[in-house]
Specification:
Structural class: alpha/beta
CATH topology of the largest domain: pyruvate-formate lyase- activating enzyme
CATH class of the largest domain: Alpha Beta
Pfam families: Radical_SAM, UPF0004
Protein name: tRNA-2-methylthio-N(6)-dimethylallyladenosine synthase
Number of strands: 13
CATH architecture of the largest domain: Alpha-Beta Horseshoe
Domain MTTase N-terminal: 5-119
Function: Catalyzes the methylthiolation of N6-(dimethylallyl)adenosine (i(6)A), leading to the formation of 2-methylthio-N6-(dimethylallyl)adenosine (ms(2)i(6)A) at position 37 in tRNAs that read codons beginning with uridine.
CATH superfamily of the largest domain: tm_1862 like domain
Shape: globular
Distance between the termini: 40 Å
Number of helices: 12
EC number: 2.8.4.3
Radius of gyration: 21 Å
Length: 362
């Protein structure tokens, strides 16, 4: 009997990448492959990459250099967000790689292979139309595409049948589910009336009584609707942790980032949430050292942090991403200053909650 070929997957980055790797594993096993116990035993090695910051790409490059030392006949396949460089350039940059796999070519035809038997990632959309000036996602994952609602609900039903009691709905911006055909400029200028498609989906997911916990991430503040707030307040199945990236507390920087809201808008949203949702825990993302960020700009972020009382913050030091609008701006905040600002926010937001840190699915 012929021995089955084996695969091994390295995953860098966010929850969406982890979900993608589960689908990649499912595709391999549908084709008769078996998971290798370790990378040394693998016939094929998949590296699912992250490009949100240069440091993430550097880790991939370091891994490839190590793998090349004992590559032998192993096949190395690169996928994920580094695809934004294009196939030809990637193969020039990374000669250790044998094949490029655009992540959008990995569909939903095969069941995902999940290690977690309680919580399941369920992608509801892919890509992004927002084009924040610093963000590589619209270039690495393409324009936003929503999955059919029926497919999502069918997948959740199957997960429940397998014993899953928690799910996390995933998207680069879950709020915009079902709105990918409407131009982003029109949506920002004239907010949609009525119940947004994401809230309609969330209401249907809440009807699965066997689900004990429903999470979603990530949301953009500018289209976090009143209907969504009401939905969270009404359904106790929905997690009381809300991840709401702010990125900056300076209106000038927010405009340069093309975020579509002011810090006053953000604070107004937070007050609505805290007024309606009991036991709410808020988390956020913040970038320090964005091009042109002055000390007053940074202090505006510090002041907002004191007003909002986030309990967890993923604070990143800005690094230019090729092809983005911000990459054309001067990266004029020194590495030392970025580190200083990072440490201030780390001490202010994260350190006080280290012993009682909110449960954040990572």
């Amino acid at each position: 009997m012929k021995k089955a070929k084996t695969y091994f997957i390295y995953t860098f980055g966010c929850q969406m990448n982890k979900s993608d790797s589960e689908r990649i594993a499912g595709d391999y096993q549908t084709r008769g492959f078996q998971p290798a116990k370790n990378v040394k035993e693998a016939d094929e090695i998949v590296i699912n990459t992250c490009s949100v910051r240069k440091s993430a790409e550097d880790r991939v490059i370091g891994l490839l250099l190590n793998l090349a030392k004992n590559k032998g006949k192993k096949k190395i396949i690169l996928t994920g967000c580094m695809i934004h460089y294009g196939r030809r350039r990637l193969l020039e940059m990374l000669p250790q790689v044998d094949e490029i796999l655009p992540i959008n070519e990995v569909g939903f035809n095969s069941p995902s292979i999940r290690r977690d038997k309680i919580n399941a990632w369920v992608p509801i959309s892919n890509g992004c139309n927002s084009f924040c000036s610093y963000c590589i996602v619209p270039y690495s994952r393409g324009r936003e595409t929503s999955r059919p609602e029926k497919d999502i609900l069918d997948e959740i039903r199957q997960l429940i049948d397998k014993g899953y009691t928690e799910i996390t709905l995933l998207g680069q911006n879950v709020n915009s589910f079902g709105l990918d055909k409407i131009g982003i400029g029109l949506r920002k200028a004239r907010p949609r009336q009525g119940i947004p498609p994401f809230v309609e989906l969330l209401e249907k997911v809440c009807r699965f009584n066997k689900l004990k916990k429903i999470r979603f991430m990530t949301s953009n503040p500018w289209d976090f609707s009143d209907a969504l707030i009401d939905c969270i307040a009404q359904h106790l199945q929905i997690d009381r942790f809300v991840h709401l990236p702010v990125q900056s507390g300076s209106n000038r920087i927010l405009k340069l980032m093309n975020r579509g809201y002011t810090w006053q808008d953000y604070l107004k949203l937070v007050k609505k949430l805290t007024a309606k949702v009991k036991d709410l825990t808020l988390g956020t993302d913040i970038i320090v050292g964005f091009p042109g960020e002055t000390e007053p700009d940074f202090q505006a972020t510090v002041n907002l942090a004191k007003k909002v009382n986030w309990q967890v913050a993923f604070v990143a030091r800005y690094s230019p991403r090729p092809g983005t609008a911000a990459a054309k701006m001067a990266d004029d905040v020194s590495a030392a200053e970025k580190k200083r600002r990072w440490q201030i926010l780390e001490n202010l937001i994260n350190q006080p909650y280290l012993t009682n840190r909110p449960k954040v699915i990572k």
